[in-house]
Amino acid sequence: MTGRGAIRTPAFMPVGTVGTVKGLYLDQVRDAGSDIILGNTYHLMLRPGAEQVAKLGGLHTFIGWDGPILTDSGGFQVMSLSKIRKVSEQGVTFQSHIDGRKYELTPERAMEIQRLLGSDIQMQLDQCIEYPHTEKQAEKAMQLSLRWAERSRKAFGSQPGRGNFGIVQGGVNEKLRLQSAEGLKKIGFEGYAIGGLAVGEGQELMLRTVEFAAPQLPRDKPRYLMGVGTPEDLLESVARGIDMFDCVMPTRSGRHGQAFTRFGKINIRNARHAGDPRPLDPESPCPALSRYSRAYLHHLIRSGELLGMMLLSWANIAYYQSLMQGMRAAIAEGTFEDFRAKTKEQWKRGDVLP
Fold first, then answer.
1. What whole-number distance in Å separates Cα of residue 311 and Cα of residue 300?
2. Is 246 a catalytic residue?
């Protein structure tokens, strides 16, 4: 529960990096069943600037979203922008990819930016490293992230109705993940995230890491797996105790002609869809899934039309939220394992033309 409403879990958070979920109106995001969206501290720091957003009434007012917003801290960009940043004990210095200006992001500044944005869940600044890495590299980043967690927590201060999440690091090493979790629990947060996964290690190793990392976190606090993933990733991670997810995959895949449905992945670019009058899913309440023919979607995507990208992004967000709703209902009814098996069987069976 946040000051702007409850978040039903397991929850998927569409990614609104710079204040927009790419290709969708926020009304579509909400109507698809999204309780919460995600914004990015690093990108909003660069443009339009946190102070500017604050002057305009905060991020919720600025973008027209009245539900909860989670902001990440910029930790992922510590990895993804490794060529234009420098890490020190104090924090991270970035050279803007927009205009070359230098910006310093410390744990304190990351929390200040998130407070100015007015987000409901604010993440600690951490150091995320890509895979493969050595145990020594993973330990160094984990220890730095723990020290930054303590500073982030102190800088978060008192913000009634808002929460501050710590981030477990440690690569794919069980000992390091345990050490990180224990350190974060001693500091104390409103929720806990597992970071540093889906960075090149593959699904099997990711799920194995989730399997030993999630049980180390408090059962009465949200557990958030950052940057994940495919529908199968979500289903398998919920089975291992995860409550919250975010990922650009549904909208990014939609822009490239790939739909996620209850029949599995459908590459609408394939020639076999050119004469198919069926919608992606006639039973879906989402118009993008039930109203438009595969032939039309194929035509739009092959023609490079924005409408095709928008419709598939909408369809994917709607399917992700439908999947989360199905998991929530199955958990409430005590039938999750049955739901899991049937969902995977439907994906495997697919929806092949006669």
1. 10
2. yes
